[in-house]
Amino acid sequence: MEGAVNEDGYRQQLTMNKSLSSLSNEAPSNSSSAFYFFTLYMYMYVQPILCVFGFLGNFLSVFVFCSKPLRNASSNVYLTALSCTSFVFCFSNFLVWLETVRVQIIHQEVICQSIVYITYVCSFLTVWYVVCITFENFVVTINLRYAVIVCTVYKARIIVTSLAITAILLYTFALWTTKVERGHGKIYCDIESEYQKTLHVFTYIDIIFTLAVPFIAMTFFLGVVYVKHIVVRVSCSPCTKSNTCRPVRRTRGSRNDSLTKITRVLLAIGSSYIVLSVPSCVNKIRAIVLSVRDQQEEPTHDSWAVIQFSQMIYYLSFCLNFFYYLKWSVNYRKALGDIFKVFISNRESEGKISQVPFINLFSRRAASHDYDQVATYV
């Protein structure tokens, strides 16, 4: 249990259950607050719900965004990749939670290293795919003509693939710095003591690429988008009662309406991710500061509760995207409805699905305008 709480944020995910298991074997001290018991209850009963719902919602989203009318948009390429990493992350996190019900899958060889590795890779990809989404929203909001050139499906696929390869190579060290330790009748998936210094180096690299740079970029992009929306709303409000705004509305028509819905989805994804990640980021920064100062902090029930509660808030970001799609994306709802119709009709009549190609079930209309080709046909 030593170092489980005062270690840097990079190690938090791996040692979380080890701390919980050790603390759970101790009687709660008088210093244990109501917040600890509340967090423990949330961890045992709410976190698996978040994991299962996040897995199912993102799993469905992958199929929806891969459908014919939606896959021809660059932003949907990022949303597909984000959904893939999210449902894999939720699944691996659920396997970690299973230790709560004494199903110790994570503490087995190969599975131990694999889950830690997958968690790190998915965390890296998630934050950078959100950065790509906020960048697309930024470009579309600022200059639509430039977006037609920059935001293409081909470029989006290259970026998604490049990020995936980078993450796969960058975090390979997790495969050889973790092992299954046995002692005192217990088995733990933990970090090899001989690689502590190496891990600290990768910790600072990870902080730069998954915390500092992405959050600065997202804050800038989202800030500009919000300012742009405020300026447009303020500038148009005086002329709502006059005829000066009518020609603009006529020339753009449904194009502005569609763009508004698209920016809402992308804006909600980026904004909620930043807000829900703040508590976890604060804990990481605090852990890094303590590590730099060489200060030790004895693990307690309350310190575990603070770390775990901030993590659960972060996990919530993997579930909310599904609601954003349902609320603001008409095409997402249509494609999702088509999927359920296929399954229902398949149960009613065997072999009926084979008569209709799967890809054609989603054929409603293809993106035809430059605006749609920007990858905003969500």
From TrEMBL:
Location(s), subcellular: Membrane
Coiled-coil residue windows: none
Transmembrane segments: 40-65, 77-97, 117-144, 156-176, 201-227, 265-285, 305-326
Domain of life: Eukaryota
Keywords, alphabetical: G-protein coupled receptor, Membrane, Receptor, Transducer, Transmembrane, Transmembrane helix
Signal peptide extent: none
Topological relation to the membrane, as annotated: Multi-pass membrane protein
GO CC, any one term: plasma membrane
Keyword Transcription: no
PROSITE patterns referenced in this protein's UniProt entry, alphabetically: G_PROTEIN_RECEP_F1_2
Residue stretches making up the G-protein coupled receptors family 1 profile domain: 57-325
One of the record's GO molecular function terms: G protein-coupled receptor activity
PANTHER family per UniProt: G-PROTEIN COUPLED RECEPTOR, G-PROTEIN COUPLED RECEPTORS FAMILY 1 PROFILE DOMAIN-CONTAINING PROTEIN
Protein's name in the database: Mu-type opioid receptor-like
